[in-house]
Amino acid sequence: MNKFEALSQFQAWPPEWQRLCAEYWIETGEVEPTQVLRTFGERLEPEKSIPTQGCTPIYRGEFGIIEREYLAKCHHETSTRRDAANMFLERYPGRSVQAVEIKIRKMLDASGVMHVRY
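The structure assignment produced for this chain is given below.
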């Protein structure tokens, strides 16, 4: 199989699988987070196109499993949500500090235990 056939097969995968691969590549350092704009199979329609300068990540409020696990680690290792959000953004840039703080708050239960839902 040549690389073009492999790419065609990859593009036929469900978007969730493509995102999981992208998250894995970022986590293992094979690509930089700013190189992954969206899943390869997704096509932005003209009215949904977001103008970007350079190669910036496009986030739709979704946090992948690997990101949620790392966010839980950041929360565990720091003393405030703000510190955890800043630590998270050093590794996964592209979101606002406030958005990450909100995600932390949503992942915490009433007793303050962080939950990573799979």
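Interim note for the steering committee: The mean pLDDT is 75. The CA atoms of residues 43 and 84 lie 33 Å apart.
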